Amino acid sequence: MGSGELSGRDVLASSVKGQGRRVALGAALGCVHQLGEALVPVLIGVVVDQAVAGRDAGRLMLWLAVLAVLYVCLSWSFRLGARAGERGAEEAAHELRLAVVRRVLDPRGGAEADRLSGELANVATEDAKRVGAVNMALMSGIWAVAGIAVSAVALLLTSVPLGLIVLLGTPVLLWLGHLLSKPLERRSEAEQDRAAGAAGVAADLVAGLRVLKGLGAQRAAVERYRRTSQVSLAATLRAARAESWQTGLVLALTGGFIALIAWVGGRLALDGSLTLGQLVSAVGLALFLLGPLETFAWVNAELAQGRASAARIAEVLSARPAVTGGDELVPDAVRGGLRLRGVRLGGLDGVDLDVPAGRLTGIAVTDPACAEALLSCLGREADPEAGSVELDGVPLTRLDPARLRAAVLVAAHDAALFDGSLTGNVVPAGTADDALTARALAAADADEVVRSLPHGAATGVGEGGRSLSGGQRQRVLLARALRAGPPVLVVHDPTTAVDAVTEARIAEGLREFRQGRTTVVVTNSPALLSVADRVVLLDGGRVGAEGTHAELARTHETYRTAVLA
Fold first, then answer.
1. CA 204/CA 196 separation, integer angstroms
2. Phi, psi (degrees; rounded to nearest 5) at 408
3. Could you tell me if 424 and 431 are in contact, meaning their C-beta atoms sit under 8 angstroms apart?
4. Dihedral sign, Cα of residue 122, residue 127, residue 130, residue 133
5. Do 88 and 139 meet the contact criterion of CB atoms below 8 Å apart?
6. Are 41 and 285 in contact (CB under 8 A)?
């Protein structure tokens, strides 16, 4: 499923089309089951007329045997049909989850804009499940149509007035059920929006729990979640009320319809138009119709919720990319020269900057917004509003974003660690304890972290690295970036949570490990800037000064204020 312009209807159609064979198989087996269900009251009527009324024991045993065989067929057809339907629903939901995850992880970005991570998780789980369930609802709807059609034919053969009542009354019931599902659809969409918002706030608060405790802001955080949760609860209750009203009214209409059939059948029996067995069959068929008609009420509710969820999934899948996708491949031999020309974005105001290949360049800023904008440009999280960024003379907009990020790795200071071992976080593709990993750990001074853990590098760090201190997490993150070994490495404030002695060791280790490869360190740390071959000061959104750390510290007052104050 692509990420072009999509509507909720497109998502539903794609989901059903993808499971077409299973839905067709389940529907066919279900129709067989409905045929058998409808035959049961007919056969009972035959038993009454031919065996019970005539007191024929032989015929009674014969028809009972036929009923037994019929019930065996009913059992297996229902079991196999329901299995096909459930599998189709689950696989459709699984495919939708994969589609949402692929879109969220798309190198072009954009799906996460204005959405919390918990909200995206809700779309990928609950909404995908509801849309997948439409396959089962569609199959059940076909079952119900088959049941009503068979019942109508049987009633027509028994009594033309009863058959006409079913044929004419059922479309009216379906139309009324569709009208009654509209409020449920609107309220279901609002319910999912509020639930996703609450999930997003909860995930956001849990991720920042340690910070909240440090600030003593737990009560304010709990109050924020309580307000969001109450809004979600109110939306859920409104949707539940709409569903109960819809279900109740449909059941009332269905009950009235069944009562009408029973009343007409009774009148026909009284005036001799129906035999006793035919009356039993007619009443049995009328009662059987209750099942398909109730199924229609359930199908309408499922479709209403599925349409609402499909619209939310469509919004994510068709989200506008944050950057345009180039299709040129990054050359195998990347020299690593970066050039910015007239770049305007966020705090950057026409920046002209050259980063020579194979050198360690430090970039200090007077405004943190400049650092964030620069990192966004270099990592292609956003394209400049004006100007261009080039790698070895090729504009980044012409390069494939995924291949580009393998060549230019931007390691943010707030990147995430994953649940698993420390080595698994440094070497994502495996747990190899090779010489390069050891060198990366040593360069980031993370080998000291390894020695402090009970099981060394095999120790689990917990979700988000919560079992590590802030400084330990920073060192592991830097080791991961170094171990990746990209041609161009951009790191942002990798030592803000470590002491001065450790910071000095990391600075020397970083310089030695990246010797001969392009490295950009965006920081105001004197220790890191002092080992850079060249330092650039971004002041007021432009390049304010260039030189070595020692030169700028001696001659440039703004630099001294930004770095040494």
1. 12
2. -120, 100
3. yes
4. negative
5. yes
6. yes
